[in-house]
Amino acid sequence: xxxxxxxxxxxxxxxxxxxxxxxxxxxxxxxxxxxxxxxxxxxxxxxxxxxxxxxxxxxxxxxxxxxxxxxxxxxxxxxxxxxxxxxxxxxxxxxxxxxxxxxxxxxxxxxxxxxxxxxxxxxxxxxxxxxxxxxxxxx
Length: 139
Fold this sequence. Notes:
The protein is α+β, with helices and mostly antiparallel strands. It has 3 helices and 10 strands, in the order βαβββαβαβββββ.
């Protein structure tokens, strides 16, 4: 099987509140939206934000909380981490962990979107980010 992820879909409670977070906070532009879902074209995958009743009907499972995962948005420089977090907070996010330098290196902080999904905003000096936003693992 090919090593890839095609779509990540987040269950949400309020479409307009979620849309504001992703469009004003991250600056992303939807490629499709209707009354239940918004899709954002990412670098190699799609991110969907879908009202929980629609996601429940489609999957047969009621989404609950964030579970044990966090999504990450890497930035090109350490100085970009805190302004990105501030922008996300202005768009309706909440700081979960202030930006700091973890033992393993780099610089990161955590923000939750309006539905509680965790986003790590991070800079890793060993990883490169190309012009299309593709992150390459490095050591």
